[in-house]
Amino acid sequence: MELKAIIVDDERPAREELRFLISAYPQIRLVGEASSGKEAIRLAESLAPDVIFLDIKMWDLNGFETAKGIFEKGIDPFIIFATAYDEYAVKAFEINAVDYILKPITKKRLDKTISRIVHLFKSNENHFEIEKLMDYIETMGKPQNIKIPIWKNNRICLLKPSDISYFEAVEKGSKVMANQGVFETNYCLSDLEEKLKDLNFFRTHKSFLVNLDKVMEIIPWFNGKYILSLKDYEKNEVPVSRRCAKKLRERLEF
Questions:
Q1: Residues 6+ apart with CB under 8 A from 251
Q2: pLDDT, tens only, 114-164
Q3: pTM higher than 0.70, yes or no?
Q4: What's the distance, CA 184 to chain centroid?
Q5: CB hemisphere CA count around 45 (13 angstroms)
Q6: CATH number of the domain bearing residue 118
Q7: Looking at residues 172-177, what average pLDDT do you find?
């Protein structure tokens, strides 16, 4: 028995590590890889894999939204969620329909997962209770209703993250560069980074947190650095430090 599998993870090193581990199992044939949720849906539709190793936290769609999109295409592979966060591993995976692997992935844990997959296929068990998984996706997979409080005319207003181009660290909090103008918030960049970790925000520099959906151009700079041009703030030069440049290249795969 040989099962077709694809790997979905927005971080290249994570895909490479899992690819190496999977190569030790003759029961699993890796047929493709995707670096985003949308790419995964297209790949699943074209390759019809038996198994998908699916990261939960990705830059465009999270793992639950991606799984939903795959099911809606009429494809029902065995999905193994991969996560670095324990909070997903306890409550979320009480669902019998799916398995999960905590990162960093170990061979011992992967052995257990592969054995379970092979058993389910050999026994012809109905290994996907799709309705149960879809119910879970509806409750856990939805993005949170996140708002950023900012000061405007001595009042506190709330901004949607999608309206924000970037944050810049200032002495007492952060400057907020948004569609509606320039504001300030009491949140420091570290707090904002944590608050927006499930959205497409990226720390380009110790003093900047950027909405990658607003990036129009990436301009190479000296010593391996970059300058970003952002929608609504094209004249502002948003730096990408040398340390963050590698992570940005991996994130956007350029």
A1: 10, 11, 59, 202, 212
A2: 998 888 787 765 444 455 565 665 555 555 578 999 988 888 899 999 999
A3: no
A4: 28
A5: 14
A6: 3.40.50.2300
A7: 94
